[in-house]
């Protein structure tokens, strides 16, 4: 299937905000976009320091085929931001599941990217243990931190985590640093415009979004605590898992994903060539094609 | 009762391909499930089981990595995993409505289960929750040097191998640090330690002790679970507990608390091992002499 998307129009934040509503989930306001009149439904989980806005290019095309549910995690985008506490990955997973229940979603395909893949892995773990009610039929994971090494949490991983955390902390410091980090994640830097970056930064700054207490240190600690749980989740999956990955991603190690696919024959990779960490922004057509194929 | 006797009283259930040791006694329709503490096992409850099972159906399991349950090698056991295993096990046994009694490490598992209940994620009905001896506000906990060393990833590796120390540590906890002079249970302590020694349990202590980090991470989630609970929660506090010092109680006491939280101060340090009868009376109003 050939998908064509006009790559030149940039959407501003307030137009994006108008597409969605705030839904209260356990007393937290979650910004949710729910578009498309189809039986099949896709729920999308965004990455760290960005928001559902990452998907503005692909939404019109995707909603021709799916009921698309996009949400901003608590602490990101237009969702409620908590300045006095860290909202754990486990809490985020609870919220996603509750939101699916409130919207009465069924036959769900779950797509997750970056930080979202960890929330997805938590949901996979619970599904493997038959601890969730809703039916998720398929998981599609984008570029993210899929841990596959079954051995113990090693010093090597500690170094990787330290490197990651330095990078992530730097992103919060200023617009300049944020811009630099996001641009570096692209294969072709010209694919992301300054206007888009300003809109993304605006959403991040909204409601003191940068003041999240110690996000990184908590986040890294969680990655360590749940190392085995999440590795196990991917290895014991009961429903199909597909990976859609930009080939030239410098922020995550794609070799990991290869090993994962080699180890588990239920897991299949669809590569997007000449593309970095954000395929939905850098190669939106190919990304939509891959989603429809997966 | 020897550890082997205890083992023969229970049976094993397979949960997610792991064998979980379960004691299931009593014929009452009212069920109590018990989440034991760290680093012991269901054996802690051997003394109160005969009396408690006259009033309730009592289901106690050894957490994954503890007691007679499987101890998968090189797996970081998270409290979240323990909650998952407990929920799957209870489902497998066919329990629909339970009272949860939790001790120490088990209280964290119980609070995770309460969080899920508050978040509409589990169908199991929970009548009430009883939390005992818990270090609920960990930032006030004074970790002793040895606990700190055990927590250290690099040193802990070697320290865990000093197996004899582990025995001493438990013994100290039960004997010297407690104020009750009656305790003479060297014999019991030996058995608890022997069990910890099986399936290379010692190597797992290091991985298990990760739970300290988790309590920091989930502090908000679990305090919120207590604050928003629609299920009655009873908290039994012991002033003389050497680990959960009284500052913790003070902080908790001065905070705004849900009306469903009920506090009982366990002034005389009734414990399940030392004075089981008094403990039962305090927690369940079961009085052996009256019957």
TrEMBL record, chain A:
<dbReference type="InterPro" id="IPR029058">
    <property type="entry name" value="AB_hydrolase_fold"/>
</dbReference>
<dbReference type="GO" id="GO:0046464">
    <property type="term" value="P:acylglycerol catabolic process"/>
</dbReference>
<dbReference type="GO" id="GO:0016020">
    <property type="term" value="C:membrane"/>
</dbReference>
<dbReference type="InterPro" id="IPR000639">
    <property type="entry name" value="Epox_hydrolase-like"/>
</dbReference>
<dbReference type="GO" id="GO:0047372">
    <property type="term" value="F:monoacylglycerol lipase activity"/>
</dbReference>
<protein>
    <recommendedName>
        <fullName>AB hydrolase-1 domain-containing protein</fullName>
    </recommendedName>
</protein>
<dbReference type="Pfam" id="PF00561">
    <property type="entry name" value="Abhydrolase_1"/>
</dbReference>
<dbReference type="InterPro" id="IPR050266">
    <property type="entry name" value="AB_hydrolase_sf"/>
</dbReference>
<feature type="domain" description="AB hydrolase-1">
    <location>
        <begin position="42"/>
        <end position="121"/>
    </location>
</feature>
<dbReference type="InterPro" id="IPR000073">
    <property type="entry name" value="AB_hydrolase_1"/>
</dbReference>
UniProtKB/TrEMBL annotation, chain B:
<dbReference type="InterPro" id="IPR029058">
    <property type="entry name" value="AB_hydrolase_fold"/>
</dbReference>
<protein>
    <recommendedName>
        <fullName>AB hydrolase-1 domain-containing protein</fullName>
    </recommendedName>
</protein>
<feature type="domain" description="AB hydrolase-1">
    <location>
        <begin position="31"/>
        <end position="143"/>
    </location>
</feature>
<dbReference type="Pfam" id="PF00561">
    <property type="entry name" value="Abhydrolase_1"/>
</dbReference>
<dbReference type="GO" id="GO:0046464">
    <property type="term" value="P:acylglycerol catabolic process"/>
</dbReference>
<dbReference type="GO" id="GO:0016020">
    <property type="term" value="C:membrane"/>
</dbReference>
<dbReference type="InterPro" id="IPR050266">
    <property type="entry name" value="AB_hydrolase_sf"/>
</dbReference>
<dbReference type="InterPro" id="IPR000073">
    <property type="entry name" value="AB_hydrolase_1"/>
</dbReference>
<dbReference type="GO" id="GO:0047372">
    <property type="term" value="F:monoacylglycerol lipase activity"/>
</dbReference>
């Amino acid at each position: 299937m050939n998908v064509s998307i006009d790559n030149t129009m940039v959407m501003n934040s307030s137009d994006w905000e108008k597409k969605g509503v705030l839904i209260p989930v356990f007393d937290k306001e979650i910004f949710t976009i729910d578009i498309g009149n189809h039986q099949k439904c896709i729920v999308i989980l965004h990455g760290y320091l960005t928001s559902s806005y990452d998907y503005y290019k692909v939404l019109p095309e995707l909603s021709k085929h799916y009921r698309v549910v996009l949400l901003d995690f608590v602490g990101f985008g237009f969702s409620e931001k908590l300045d006095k506490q860290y909202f754990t990955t486990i809490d985020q997973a609870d919220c996603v599941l509750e939101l699916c229940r409130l919207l009465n979603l069924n036959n769900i395909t779950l797509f997750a990217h970056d930080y979202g893949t960890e929330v997805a892995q938590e949901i996979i773990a619970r599904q493997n243990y038959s601890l969730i009610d809703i039916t998720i039929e398929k998981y599609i994971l984008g570029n993210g931190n899929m841990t596959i090494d079954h051995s113990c949490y090693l010093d090597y991983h500690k170094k990787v985590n330290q490197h990651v955390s330095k990078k992530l902390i730097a992103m919060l410091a200023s617009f300049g640093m944020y811009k630099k980090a996001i641009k570096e994640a692209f294969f072709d830097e010209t694919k992301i415009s300054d206007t888009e970056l300003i809109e993304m930064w605006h959403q991040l700054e909204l409601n003191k979004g940068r003041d999240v207490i110690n996000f990184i240190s908590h986040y890294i600690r969680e990655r360590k605590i749940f190392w085995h749980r999440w590795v196990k989740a991917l290895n014991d999956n009961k429903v199909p898992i597909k990976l859609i990955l930009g080939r030239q991603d410098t922020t995550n190690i794609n070799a990991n994903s290869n090993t994962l696919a080699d180890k588990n024959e239920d897991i299949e990779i669809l590569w997007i060539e000449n593309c970095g960490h954000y395929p939905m922004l850098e190669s939106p057509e190919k990304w939509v094609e891959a989603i429809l194929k997966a | 009762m020897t550890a082997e006797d205890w083992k023969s009283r229970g049976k094993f259930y397979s949960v997610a391909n792991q064998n979980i040791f379960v004691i299931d006694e009593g014929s009452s329709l009212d069920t109590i499930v018990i989440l034991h503490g760290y680093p012991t096992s269901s054996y802690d409850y051997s003394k109160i089981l005969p009396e408690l099972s006259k009033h309730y159906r009592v289901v106690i399991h050894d957490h994954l990595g503890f007691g007679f349950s499987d101890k998968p090698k090189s797996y970081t056991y998270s409290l979240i995993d323990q909650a998952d295993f407990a929920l799957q096990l209870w489902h497998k046994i066919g329990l629909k409505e339970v009272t949860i009694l939790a001790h120490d490490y088990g209280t964290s598992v119980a609070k995770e289960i309460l969080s899920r209940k508050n978040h509409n994620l589990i169908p199991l009905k929970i009548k009430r929750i009883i939390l005992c001896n818990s270090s609920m506000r960990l930032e006030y906990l004074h970790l002793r040097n040895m606990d700190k060393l055990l927590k250290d990833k690099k040193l802990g590796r070697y320290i865990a191998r000093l197996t004899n120390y582990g025995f001493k540590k438990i013994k100290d906890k039960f004997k010297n640090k407690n104020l009750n002079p009656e305790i003479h249970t060297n014999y019991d302590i030996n058995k608890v330690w022997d069990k910890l020694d099986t399936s290379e349990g010692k190597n797992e202590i290091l991985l298990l002790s990760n739970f300290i980090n988790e309590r920091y991470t989930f502090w908000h989630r679990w305090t919120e679970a207590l604050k928003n609970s629609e299920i009655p929660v009873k908290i039994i506090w012991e002033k003389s507990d050497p680990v959960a010092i009284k500052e913790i109680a003070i902080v908790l006491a001065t905070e705004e608390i849900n009306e469903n939280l009920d506090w009982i101060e366990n002034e005389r340090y009734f414990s399940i091992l030392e004075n089981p009868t008094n403990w039962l009376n305090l927690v369940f109003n079961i009085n052996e002499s009256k019957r």
